[in-house]
Amino acid sequence: SQVTLSAAKTEVTVGNIRLVPSTTQLKEVTVEALRPTITQEADRMVVSIEGTALAAGRTAYDVLATSPGVFIDQEGNIQLNGRAGVTIMLDGKLTYLSARDLRSLLEGMSAENIRNIEIITNPSSKYDAEGSSGILNINLKKNTLQGMNGSAYAGANYNGKQYGFSSGGNINYRTGPWNSFLNLDMARRVGGRDATFNRLFRDGESTTYFDQVATGNFEVQGPPAVRVGTDYSFNDRHSIGAMGYFNTNKLHADFLTETYIGAMPNQPTQFIDADNFNQNRFTNFTSNLHYMGKYDTLGTTLTADLDFVKIRNKGDANFYNYFYDLATGLPPTQDFLYTDTPNEFDILATKVDFTRPLANGRKLELGAKASRVVSDNDSRFYFNNSEALQLDERRTNHFVYDENIYAGYVNLNSKLGEQLSVQGGLRAEHTTSRGESLTTKDINKRDYLNLFPSLFVQQKVSDNYQINYNYSRRIQRPNYGQLNPFFAYRDPYTYWQGNPNLRPQYTHAFGITQVFKKSYNLVLNYQINRDVIAELPEIIPETSTTIYYVGNVPKS
Question: Is residue 390 a contact partner of residue 367, using CB atoms and an 8 Å limit?
Answer without folding.
Answer: no
